[in-house]
Design brief:
Elements: E1 13-15, H1 18-30, E2 35-40, H2 46-58, E3 61-66, H3 76-81, H4 86-95, E4 100-102, H5 106-109, H6 128-131, H7 135-150, E5 154-158, H8 162-174, E6 182-186, H9 206-211, H10 214-226, H11 231-243, E7 248-257, E8 273-281, E9 286-295
Parallel strand pairs: 1-4, 2-3, 2-5, 3-4, 5-6
Antiparallel strand pairs: 7-8, 8-9
Helix pairs in contact: 7-8, 10-11
Length: 296
């Protein structure tokens, strides 16, 4: 067991060893208590807090994992830049009422290289899957390990990582946990100016932070535009309007069926239509994702 350093005293327990956490959870289950899991990569913010608070409300105990998973980064520079602050993370988790933090080392999670391969087309092969080769395989590697370690009744994921939720649902069925584990989708949390909350937002300069909200502004405006224009016209307008903002560049914008994640050609192709976007912001640049629902 590990304690976060500093003057802040923790009422919860923080574990870095798998066996210690599992021993604790064995006693929890022996008492018939339910377990909620909130998987995170750290650098926690109010978006994560909303997931934790919901888990605390719906379960007897909540485990928050704080693990920056290297296998889901296809860009080493992105991994190195990702913010880290375990002390602040612990403080936020305790403030939300969770009982446990699981903060393992890479060696603890991967004592040997994980060679498992996960592929769940089309959900794992389009958009992020296409742009970031190996990303969802890494996500499935770490999430499956967390599910095996914690054996939660419910696991909580934010809708900002909307495609990831679709992949994780496929994973749950694949590993045989579909009847014992519920994936709980939680609404996206935004700043007052509309920017989707993300750990990467802390990497934005003041100037970059000022322009980033244009992503959601354009997406939101496109919902009204879509009522009288085609899918193709809506797509092109969103890309053009965001690219017109100095410092923003669209990597991709896809308008897809909300279940299959496959492109739609017409608004009548599906009753559930979502626009998914990834935008590079600034000179570094910082990669930001968001989405908007056109039909739900």
């Amino acid at each position: 067991m590990l304690l976060c350093t500093g003057n802040y005293k923790l009422a919860m327990k923080v574990f870095e060893k798998i066996v210690d956490l599992q021993n604790e959870l064995f006693l929890v289950r022996k008492e018939g208590k339910s377990v909620g899991l909130v998987p995170t990569m750290g650098a926690l913010h109010e978006g994560h807090a909303s997931l934790i608070r919901r888990s605390v409300k719906e379960n007897d105990v909540t485990v928050v994992s704080v693990f920056l998973n290297p296998t889901q980064f296809n860009d080493k520079g992105d991994l190195e830049r990702y913010p880290r602050n375990l002390k602040a993370d612990c403080k936020l988790v305790e403030g939300c009422g969770a009982q446990y933090v699981f903060a393992p080392s890479v060696q603890e999670m991967y004592p040997e290289p994980d060679t498992r391969q996960f592929e769940f087309p089309p959900q794992s092969t389009v958009m992020e899957g296409a742009k970031r080769p190996g990303h969802f395989n890494g996500v499935c590697q770490v999430v499956s390990r967390l599910f095996y370690i914690v054996r939660p009744n419910r696991a909580y994921f934010g809708e900002k990582d909307w495609q990831q939720i679709a992949v994780v649902k496929r994973l749950v069925d694949y590993i045989g946990m579909g009847k014992t584990l519920k994936i709980v989708e939680c609404p996206i949390v935004r700043e007052d100016d509309g920017l989707a909350m993300s750990s990467r937002n802390s990497l934005l300069t003041k100037e970059e932070r000022a322009i980033a909200p244009n992503i959601y502004r354009v997406l939101k405006e496109s919902v009204e535009y879509a009522k009288s224009h085609t899918v193709e016209e809506t797509h092109d307008k969103v890309v053009a309007d965001i690219n017109a903002v100095d410092g923003l560049e669209v990597e991709y914008f896809e308008i897809v069926d909300g279940n299959t994640l496959l492109d739609v050609k017409s608004w009548d192709d599906s009753d559930y239509v979502v626009g998914c976007i990834t935008v590079y912001c600034g000179k570094t640049p910082i990669r930001l994702i968001d989405h908007i629902k056109y039909k739900a």
